[in-house]
């Protein structure tokens, strides 16, 4: 990736949104498939679980559904395979089976390049945040253990905060509100009065996550860490795409220069 390409992507975003320039203050990171290499386990467990219940969900397709609720994914497969939605009781059984299997999987490793990138982000004066649909009980502890001194708890958005989840823009809108409350508390209600969406970026690996970031009106950087073609992310409106977190990390200096 050349600097001109990055600048061009930024200029396109600015023209489309009517901003004069970027004013980056905070970077909102998705967690699964971005900070942790956890999607392989999810995809495997979804595939095996569906097979157990006589349904077919190929592993690659699980990546397309990343970010959806368990019930949402189960119903899409059920409609396709059987022509009707699953009952509540079926959903509960299937999702329980999948969760149990996931908990047996080895704990996902930190995504290569993620910690180095987060340290660079912080050192350049940009506040790193986590915005995830995950609601694992050990989430906070895992984040602090794997990424010491990076994240601040009051700036996190998790499954416990949101009503709709991605691809709804809600989690990212909430992230911006939380940032505003913590960093510009004196200046009235609503981040729009003091902060604009050009003060943020979103970092996502999943098509539905990119959709959420774009719908929130934020400059959205896709990191293609899975098996999907780049177009699965670009077609959702990603402003920029890197092929790994290490790739993004190696280009951070260029990116941040274009986003100030
Ligand atoms: Mg993800």
How would you describe this structure in keywords?
alpha/beta; Rossmann fold; DNA polymerase, domain 1; 2 domains; five-stranded parallel beta sheet; 12 helices; 48% helix; binds magnesium ion
Written overview of the protein:
This protein has 260 residues and is an alpha/beta fold. The chain is 48% helix and 8% strand. It has two domains: 185 residues, Rossmann fold (3-Layer(aba) Sandwich), CATH 3.40.50.1000; 66 residues, Orthogonal Bundle (DNA polymerase, domain 1). Strands 2-1-3-4-5 form a five-stranded parallel sheet, sandwiched between helices. The chain is globular and about 55 Å long. Magnesium ion binds next to loops.
In short:
The chain has 260 residues and is α/β, with parallel strands linked by helices.
List the helices and strands and how they pair.
Blueprint: H1 3-17, E1 26-29, H2 39-52, H3 59-64, H4 70-82, H5 88-104, H6 114-123, E2 127-130, H7 139-146, H8 170-183, E3 200-204, H9 207-215, E4 219-223, H10 230-234, E5 240-242, H11 245-250, H12 252-259
Parallel strand pairs: 1-2, 1-3, 3-4, 4-5
Bound molecules: magnesium ion (MG).
Structural class: alpha/beta
Q: Detail the poorly predicted runs.
A: none
Mind telling me the CATH class of the largest domain?
Alpha Beta
Reported for the largest beta sheet, the result is: 5 strands, parallel
Number of H/I helices = 12
Strand content: 5-15%
Second CATH tier, the architecture of the largest domain: 3-Layer(aba) Sandwich
Q: Could you say which small molecules are bound to this protein? A: magnesium ion
Coarse morphology:
globular
End-to-end separation: 19 Å
CATH superfamily of the largest domain: HAD superfamily/HAD-like
Rg value: 18 Å
Helix content: 40-55%
Which fold does the CATH topology of the largest domain refer to?
Rossmann fold
Order of helices and strands: HEHHHHHEHHEHEHEHH
Overall pLDDT: 94
Q: Within the largest sheet, what's the order of strands?
A: 2-1-3-4-5
Find the count of extended strands (DSSP E, 2+ residues).
5
Any idea how many domains? Answer: 2
């Amino acid at each position: 990736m050349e600097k001109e390409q990055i600048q061009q992507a930024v200029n396109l975003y600015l023209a489309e949104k009517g901003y004069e320039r970027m004013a980056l203050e905070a970077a909102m990171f998705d967690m699964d498939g971005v900070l942790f290499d956890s999607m392989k386990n999810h995809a495997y467990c979804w595939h095996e679980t569906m097979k157990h219940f006589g349904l077919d969900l190929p592993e690659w397709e699980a990546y397309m559904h990343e970010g959806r609720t368990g019930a949402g994914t189960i119903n899409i497969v059920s409609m396709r395979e059987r022509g009707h939605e699953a009952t509540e009781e079926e959903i509960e059984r299937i999702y329980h089976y999948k969760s149990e299997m996931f908990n047996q999987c080895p704990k996902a490793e930190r995504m290569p390049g993620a910690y180095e990138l987060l340290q660079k982000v912080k050192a350049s004066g940009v506040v790193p945040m986590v915005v995830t649909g995950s609601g694992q009980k050990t989430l906070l502890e895992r984040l602090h253990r794997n990424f010491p001194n990076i994240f601040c708890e009051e700036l996190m958005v998790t499954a416990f905060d949101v009503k709709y989840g991605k691809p709804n823009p809600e989690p990212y809108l909430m992230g911006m509100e939380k940032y505003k409350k913590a960093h510009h508390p004196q200046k009235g209600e609503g981040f729009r009065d003091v902060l604009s969406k050009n003060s943020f970026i979103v970092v996502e690996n999943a098509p539905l996550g990119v959709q959420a970031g774009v719908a929130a009106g934020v400059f959205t950087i896709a990191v293609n860490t899975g098996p999907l073609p780049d177009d699965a992310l670009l077609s959702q409106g990603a402003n920029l795409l890197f092929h790994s977190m290490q790739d993004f990390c190696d280009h951070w200096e260029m990116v941040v220069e274009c986003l100030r």
